[in-house]
Amino acid sequence: VISTEYLPDGETLVTATWGSLLSWWNVTNRETTQTVDRGFLVSAGIFAGEPYILSEPAIGNIDVYNAESLQNLISIEEAHNTTIYQALLSPDLSWLVTASYDGYRVWNMETSEMAYEGLGYPGFISALKWSDGSELLGVGFNNGDVVIFDAVTQSEEIYDVSNERILAIDFSNDLNIVASAGDDNNVN
Q1: Which of 43, 38, 68, 39 is nearest to 53 (CA)?
Q2: pLDDT score recorded for residue 4
Q3: DSSP three-state, residue 128
Q4: Residue 81 gets which letter from DSSP?
Q5: pLDDT at position 68
Q6: Neighbour order of strands in the sheet with 125-130
Q7: What is the Cα–Cα distance from 99 to 60, expressed in whole angstroms?
Q8: What is d(CA 120, CA 66) in angstroms, rounded to the nearest whole number?
């Protein structure tokens, strides 16, 4: 097993192996409920009341599908040139952000087209967070930078927040405040 994710029901654990098998486990009785060959598990979560899985079936590709029905919502081939190590759906399901060693990219979920490419930063992406209304995306880097991507204008601003890795980002409800925290033990 190389990665694990609890589904938000708290009763199901999804595991991924080097052999690209994803398995759903009932944590109460420790039995598998299903196993599929869907690739490396990138993340899982609940969106619009439904559980979703994001996986990398081959290096640089990304699939998003419903974790219960296994219905595929979007497949993007050659999303990146290297392994995708983070991916996150926006709360309104209109955007998908993928992070790789070559930067981050924002994808339109309706068209499967890349809407924005954030490349050229001197750091590894260590945190991703969408605002509740899906207007803003926070991207934290291991060099202490935070990028705020505006999905409406499809532009970004870079902030030099710290000299240490950013581990978490969050937005206030009115979007006037962005908080970040990281290895420097401060909230900025």
Answers
A1: 43
A2: 81
A3: strand
A4: S
A5: 81
A6: 125-130, 136-141, 145-150, 155-160
A7: 10
A8: 33
Residues of the chain where predicted confidence (pLDDT) is lower than 70: 119-120
Q: Are strands 155-160 and 125-130 parallel, antiparallel or unpaired?
A: unpaired
What is residue 42's predicted lDDT score, i.e. its pLDDT?
Answer: 86
Q: How long a stretch of residues is the chain?
A: 188
Q: What is the pTM of this model?
A: 0.85
Spacing of C-alpha 71 from chain mean position: 19
Angle at 57 between CA 96 and CA 83, to 5 degrees: 70
Q: With contact defined as beta carbons under 8 Å apart, do 59 and 95 qualify?
A: no
Which conformational region is residue 116 in: left (phi greater than 0), alpha (psi within -120 to 50 degrees), or beta?
A: beta
Quick: pLDDT tens for 40-71: 888 887 777 788 889 888 899 999 988 888 88
Distance CA 164, CA 159 (A): 13
**Burial class of residue 145, CB neighbours in 10 A (0-12, 13-18, 19+):** buried
**The two three-digit tokens of residue 17, written as one number:** 């192996």
Cβ(69)–Cβ(50) below 8 Å: no
Distance CA 168, CA 108 (A): 24
